[in-house]
Amino acid sequence: MKTNSKKDIRSMTKEQLRDFFVEKGDKAFRGNQVYEWLWQKSAHSFDGMTNVSKETRELLDANFVINHIKVDQMQRSKDGTIKNAVRLHDGLIVESVLIPTSKRTTACVSSQVGCSLDCKFCATARLKRMRNLNPDEIYDQVVAIDSQSKLYHNMPLSNIVFMGMGEPLMNYNNVLKAIDKITSPEGLGMSSKRITVSTSGVPKMIRKMADEKVKFKLAVSLHSAIDEIRTSIMPFNANFTLKDLRESLQYWYEQTKSRITYEYVVWQGINDSKKDVDALVDFCRFAPSKVNLIEYNPIDDGEFRQASNKAIEMYVNTLEDNGITVTVRRSRGKDIDAACGQLANKS
Ligand code: SF4
After folding, report:
1. Which residue among 117, 245, 264 is best mutated to probe the pocket of ligand 1, counting the most ligand atoms within 8 A of its Cβ?
2. Model confidence over 300-316: pLDDT tens digits?
């Protein structure tokens, strides 16, 4: 594992960079120039900063590093989905995915190396959490996917979901800083309405986001609206109960007026009965919401198997009969293990 004792320049704010140059007897404006190279132009090296002098580049090189990610391996699925194995500066690997449709491309990005939560159906959970990603490491995943979107799909990246490895709300500050850069005109200038943070449901953090009136969308991986069942598949639910989650989501809606999406997989013998869908309908009544029923991708030959079409139909019909918007999401990139819950499946 290679480490570098020089400071990561992208951990500095623009003001700190301006101060650095002033301290070195240069103009504060130099800080703006370098900042633009680092974020808007995504420079990988100081040498590439062509409008700053050689002396400045040497000064930067003597004091800082740019800890850029590297796409180590790129796999392309038959359906156009791309999965990247992304190497971080300390040698750890995370994964990110580009999901294309005819009209748009979506980046699914990671927020942590591994995950501290323990969802039984998820490949990432087996890695355990090693560390949080820094804002620049999240930002770089988006930049890399934006380039792939232009190259392979002839359009810039249109949407981002935080649904890769890790629980984004367990790395809240860095995720927020990354979103700030992604949406800033000094970064990628993307609209926050095109960004969705998908959480397994951390009530305290949902309240915090609501208080901060964030502008991105919220999705919750619900998978069951019955405590006993949810705890059996998502054991942290024993601490963050559905009652707490529900109240935090009500609060979210009161503060933001932004509809919540529930991500939901129906598994055979686990949550495919009438009482499961009835509980979901009740849960959806607490705040305006819609349900995405996601096709499941087995991570091994274990206990989790996609429910029958009949069970999915029952979910769709019951939700629609109760006026709840529901979509059925077919999986993408299955052949390269890029589908939901599969990240890290073969790492
Ligand atoms: S589903 Fe999400 S929160 Fe649960 S273990 Fe996997 S990465 Fe973590």
Report:
1. 117
2. 667 888 899 999 999 99
